[in-house]
Amino acid sequence: MARGGPLRADAARNRERVLEAARERLAAGDDSLQLNAIAKLAGVGVGTVYRHFPTRHALLEALVTERFRSLVDRARAAAGDDDPARGLRSLLRFALDLVTADAGFAAVLESADRAEGAAAALKSELDGAVTRLLDRAREVGAIRSDLDADDVRRLVCGVQHAVGAGGDAGLYLDVLLGGLRPR
Fold first, then answer.
1. Which of 64, 152, 156, 171: CA 20 to 30 A from 113?
2. Per residue in 140-176, is it b (16+ CB within 10 Å) or e — as a string?
3. 22 vs 38: CA distance, rounded Å
């Protein structure tokens, strides 16, 4: 959006070129997302990159919006599951799969407290759906009473770090779920 309105066609094309160049760099294993290098790869001026993405984090957020949306959708489905414990397990497995497959998404989810724009709105939606799920799980005695949506997000990110260090995702998910149960 340019000043609250839709982007001009050329600006929209340039924005997409920047995103595509950033995706290519990430796919090649370069997660530094240096905006100058992205500009060169996209064939645009560095000012164009900074106009669309004033920070590396803003670029990263734009890249992971689709994954964030899928997590929100899964959280809503989990909150509507007849069995909230099953819904929670399903959501945590899905979230863990997302963050272990995409370090960029993990970084945005981990820093969701500082999210801006679309990521901030998606974090709010995610928190609402997870809160509904946790409330339902508490009602049936499936989880502790002292957990909130931010706790769950941080725990998933912690498990992602452990899995990234060579751990077993299934084992760690089981341990996490055990720790969520009432004392």
1. 171
2. eebbeeebebeebbebbbebbeebeeeeebeebbeeb
3. 6
